[in-house]
């Protein structure tokens, strides 16, 4: 299998337009592809359809109403020149639209791959955070509660009080034995 050029690795342009040797693709930019996409986008607007409609109506009116020597297309022959102009426009429009769709498909493919990788990272991050939350819950569960600590402190205070009382009773008993 032949090794691909650096320009063939790009996915943002159709394969036929990736070589840098073409006059419209010098310096790595894809001017021709962007140019055709701009035209295809323009053809998809209501303004283009409205302009084409006005152009066709003006053509037909001019070649119907204008004086004979000023006419350049014959209504008797079915407006052959108008048909030729519209056919030429359509023959260029179809490949430009297909080129724009192919380029958009390539961009969508790259975007889908990036979205998939981002989703995988998000899933890994979410799983990590879930494990951390569970570990924190277990750690908090093993920690002594405020009530437990209070009960332990009360117990220790009671023991200290008992010891003090025994010490006082012991000292009083020793003093009484000495006094006797």
From TrEMBL:
InterPro entries: DUF1003. It comes from the Bacteria. Pfam families: DUF1003. Keywords: Coiled coil, Membrane, Transmembrane, Transmembrane helix. Residues 102-129 form a coiled coil. The chain crosses the membrane at residues 47-65, 77-99. This is DUF1003 domain-containing protein. It comes from Cryobacterium tepidiphilum. The lineage of its organism: Bacteria, Bacillati, Actinomycetota, Actinomycetes, Micrococcales.
